């Protein structure tokens, strides 16, 4: 065993080693291809007469390799034509096993090559599951908008893409803010009219409330449990009165729960000036649909920035 030295107060430094191995580089391979090369002298603390491993440097090496070699799993999904796009297994660095390899090299020397140890990350949704839960439509809703407003259209498309192909498992909740994330210019969202505390102004992500409202009506029709929904104090033009779901990153969220024994799949599409959201599941689902009034097919009037309303938050 190697004697630890944390009791000496040298925080972050590990292992006194009794030998003096050479400085032959250690090449780290991944699938037979080199991804890094390290020298023993670069990872030893510069303390005369007390040769120890510099643990923070090893941690930084692992951080760098994680950025270089980790990649996430990808769920199976459906393309625009309804064809199944296969899942992809992800991988991440096994830091524990890698640290063992590095310390063995630094302390004992001799090794010239080491295979980077990785842990497989399996997706939650595979091709078999998504094939099963795309069969039966249990909820559906369509709303309309003026696609000549390019900024608002862009925001609607981005939000629809964010929720498309999302699977909610039995007993799980779906949070619109949690899935869509913060609306920012870095993600491509643009300025468009929003309603904040009774005043209409320009804000990043204007238009996304049409997606959350369309989803609310589709989920409600499917008989899913509505956990959290906030309505504007003023009627919005794209859904019937009282059938909207306002969302804001620092404010209201729309949340529903899958109370069924089967997973449900969200399919969201934007075509022209139309938003369509379907809720799907397997043929085995025993769902209880609700009656929900449809949105008017008449093109809704645009909200103008000079308008004043009674309150609420909208996008």
Question: Can you give a write-up of this model?
Answer:
The chain is α+β, with helices and mostly antiparallel strands and 315 residues long. It folds into two domains: 6-121, Ubiquitin-like (UB roll), CATH 3.10.20; 127-314, no CATH class. The protein is 22% helix and 27% strand. The protein is built from six helices and 19 strands. It has helices spanning 55-69, 95-108, 127-133, 150-163, 176-180, 208-221, and strands at residues 13-16, 26-30, 33-38, 52-54, 77-78, 84-85, 90-93, 113-115, 118-121, 136-144, 167-168, 173-175, 191-196, 199-204, 225-228, 255-257, 264-271, 274-281, 313-314. A four-stranded antiparallel sheet has the order 10-18-17-11. Strands 3-2-8 form a three-stranded mixed sheet, covered by helices on one side. It has a three-stranded antiparallel sheet with strand order 12-16-15. α4 crosses α6. The radius of gyration is 27 Å and the shape is elongated. The relative contact order is 0.15. Mean pLDDT is 85; it is low at 1-19, 196-202 and 304-314.
Order of helices and strands: EEEEHEEEHEEHEHEEHEEHEEEEE
Per DSSP, the total helix count is 6
Into which percentage range does the β-strand content fall? 25-35%
Helix content: 10-25%
In angstroms, what separates the terminal alpha carbons? 63 Å
Mean pLDDT: 85
Strand order of the largest sheet: 10-18-17-11
Brief summary of the model shown:
The protein has 315 residues and is of the alpha+beta class. It folds into two domains: 6-121, Ubiquitin-like (UB roll); 127-314, no CATH class. The protein contains six helices and 19 strands.
């Amino acid at each position: 065993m190697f004697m630890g030295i944390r009791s000496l107060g040298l925080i972050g430094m590990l292992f006194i080693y009794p030998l003096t191995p050479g400085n032959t580089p250690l090449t780290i391979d991944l699938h037979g291809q080199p991804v890094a090369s390290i020298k023993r002298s670069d990872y030893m603390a510069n303390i005369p007469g007390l040769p120890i491993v510099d643990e923070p440097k090893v941690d930084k090496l692992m951080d760098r390799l994680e950025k270089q070699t980790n990649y996430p799993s990808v769920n199976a999904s459906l393309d625009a034509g309804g064809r199944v796009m296969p899942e992809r297994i992800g991988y991440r660095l096994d830091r524990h096993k890698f640290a063992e390899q590095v310390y063995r090299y630094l302390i004992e020397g001799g090794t010239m090559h080491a295979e980077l140890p990785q842990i497989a990350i399996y997706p939650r949704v595979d091709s078999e599951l998504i094939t099963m839960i795309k069969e039966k439509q249990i909820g559906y809703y369509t709303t309309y908008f003026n696609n000549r407003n390019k900024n608002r259209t862009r925001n609607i498309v981005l939000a629809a893409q964010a929720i498309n192909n999302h699977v909610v498992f039995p007993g799980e909740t779906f949070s619109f803010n949690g899935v869509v994330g913060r609306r920012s210019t870095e993600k491509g969202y643009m300025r468009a009219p929003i309603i904040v505390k009774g005043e209409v102004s320009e804000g990043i992500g204007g238009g996304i409330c049409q997606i959350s409202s369309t989803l609310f009506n589709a989920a409600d029709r499917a008989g899913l449990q509505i956990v959290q929904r906030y309505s504007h104090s003023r009627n919005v033009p794209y859904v019937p009165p009282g059938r909207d779901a306002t969302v804001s990153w620092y404010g209201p969220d729309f949340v529903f729960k899958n109370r069924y024994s089967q997973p449900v799949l969200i399919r969201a599409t934007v075509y022209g000036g139309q938003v369509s959201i379907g809720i799907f599941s397997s043929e085995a689902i025993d769902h209880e649909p609700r009656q929900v009034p449809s949105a008017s097919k008449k093109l809704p009037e645009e909200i103008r920035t000079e308008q004043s309303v009674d309150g609420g938050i909208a996008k």
